[in-house]
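queue> pop job 88
queue> type: inverse folding (structure -> sequence)
queue> payload:
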């Protein structure tokens, strides 16, 4: 009987040790929960993090990112997250207040565009109350600068989960190569285009101007809520006519009324560029990612620059 009791105790002890080891292994394998602002940050975090990361944008499909404010439920979810990645450059006006609100939580705040030299905004439509200040935050539309964003995310993930460093480094290298290929595709299309001017509803493409030499004629300012005066509008219409522009480019989630006026005045055909700030319901259903959408943008540019 005593021997049987000893065997029972030994077996129970072994089960307990196995259970502890399982719990420890599960803890070690547990993934990181990441939330982001604009969609590319979430997509890059997923691609770099692989099985170790769950990443999601806090922006609902089709929302206007420039005026978004988080709900109480969103704040509760952020409080439980491992990290929150935002662009910076003053794009997300709610971030500083969010930092204060969550200062006693474990969530790590990561500035995606940290270390990147952002373009100054010289858009004449901008008013002093514009959300962005004097910097253009649409940096993720530049594939080359997106490499720096991705590296910032990779470095942050390594700090949060150092045991997965090799996976993060390998996945980042693959993402970097894809971004370099995308950069070459932009260069090929724009270098071979007979035109260099595009008429856009929202001044979101300054980084394409600098990188690839296109010229955007903007109807609204950096924020789609900014609209030009009657005098500025007349100038835009004259400029579009002088450049024989046949297309007005709208965005996937915004169609300012003033852009419609310009379209009607010059008889231009509407096209759509995707700013990638948020996905649409259609994007989600079709399982599109950063590269799918950017390649569609390249095709739109090819047509617009004819």
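queue> result:
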């Amino acid at each position: 009987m005593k021997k049987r009791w000893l065997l029972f105790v030994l077996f129970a002890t072994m089960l307990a040790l196995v259970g502890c080891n399982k719990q420890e292994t599960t803890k070690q394998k547990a993934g990181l929960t990441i939330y982001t602002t604009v969609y590319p940050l979430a997509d890059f975090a997923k691609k770099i993090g692989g099985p170790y990361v769950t990443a999601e944008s806090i922006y609902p499909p089709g929302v206007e990112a420039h005026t978004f404010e988080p709900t109480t439920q969103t704040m509760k979810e952020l409080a439980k997250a491992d990290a929150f990645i935002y662009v910076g450059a003053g794009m997300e006006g709610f971030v500083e207040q969010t930092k204060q609100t969550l200062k006693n939580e474990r969530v790590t705040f990561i500035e995606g565009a940290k270390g990147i030299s952002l373009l100054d905004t010289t858009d004449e439509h901008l008013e002093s109350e514009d959300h962005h200040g004097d910097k253009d935050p649409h940096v993720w539309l530049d594939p080359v600068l997106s490499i720096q964003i991705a590296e910032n995310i990779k470095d942050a993930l390594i700090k949060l989960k150092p045991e997965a460093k090799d996976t993060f480094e390998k996945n980042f290298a693959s993402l970097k190569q894809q971004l370099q290929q995308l950069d070459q595709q932009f260069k090929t299309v724009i270098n071979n285009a007979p035109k260099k001017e595009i008429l856009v509803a929202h001044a979101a493409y300054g980084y394409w101007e600098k990188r690839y030499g296109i010229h955007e004629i903007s109807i609204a300012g950096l924020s789609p809520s900014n609209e030009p005066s009657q005098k500025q509008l007349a100038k835009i219409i004259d400029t579009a006519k002088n450049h024989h522009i046949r297309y007005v480019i709208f965005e996937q989630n915004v169609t300012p009324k003033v852009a419609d006026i310009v379209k009607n005045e010059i008889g231009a055909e509407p096209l759509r560029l995707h700013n990638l700030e948020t996905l649409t319901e259609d994007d989600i259903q079709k399982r599109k990612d950063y590269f799918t959408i950017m390649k569609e943008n390249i095709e739109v540019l090819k047509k617009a620059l004819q």
